[in-house]
Amino acid sequence: MMNNAQRQLSRRDREQQLDGLIEAYWDERSEDFSKLRQKELSGPCGAAWQAYLTGKLAVDKPLKILDIGTGAGFFAVLLSQMGHQVTGIDMSADMLHQAKQNVLAAGCSAEFHKMNAQELDFAAETFDVVISRNLTWTLPDVMQAYREWQRVLKKGGRLLNFDSDYGLVTFSRKEDQADVHANIRQELVTECNDIKDELRISTHRRPEWDARFLRDLGMQVTVEEEIAPQVRTDKNMQFDTLPLFAIIASK
């Protein structure tokens, strides 16, 4: 029988394995994923997101913003266009390549680093804002991620996290080219489901769990249960039907 130290080591080893699997999954999806983000940026959704973020940031000066899980650079493009200084990080090198290309194509600038969202290589109190979209549901240790995100926020800084409660969902392959899950191999869909079901965050009901944990860290938290109607405004794109929640937490 394993003792507590052995169980802890075993769990850390498995979390590292999951990190590798998740990285490989997003590497393979990067090109198709980037095409979807380009469509989102150039359509009504891009303008809708900018309007939403302008309201939440509510400042008239450039902010230093960390975009965690930047993916193909969706937020990096939007926030740079809004005049902010953006640093984007992602575990997937292929996604970062797409992000750099999308930022260049948009005629704006951002800094990118390959980095684990749960182990940030930044000093404490570096950023005015930490932002993330559709990332936390993929992380092996969301509690550690939130601790790190709080650490790098300046006092009075703001965390914006947008995600959905994917724990009860089983993903399936889509044929419709307008769907966000189009063109994904069935093997990759199966792998996505297997990884998701193994992650601890999938056992929690969200965003209630997130809000409770962030408050325990001492942050002031506001939750918006469903913002999809405000930001998913392109009728030619088919998005997930789950509510898209927003967590706004101040340090």
Automatic annotation (TrEMBL):
Pfam families: Methyltransf_11. One of its GO terms (biological process) is methylation. Keywords: Methyltransferase, Transferase. GO terms for molecular function: S-adenosylmethionine-dependent methyltransferase activity. CDD domains: AdoMet_MTases. Residues 66-160 form the Methyltransferase type domain. The keyword Membrane does not apply. The keyword Transferase applies. It comes from the Bacteria. This is Methyltransferase domain-containing protein. It comes from Selenomonas ruminantium.
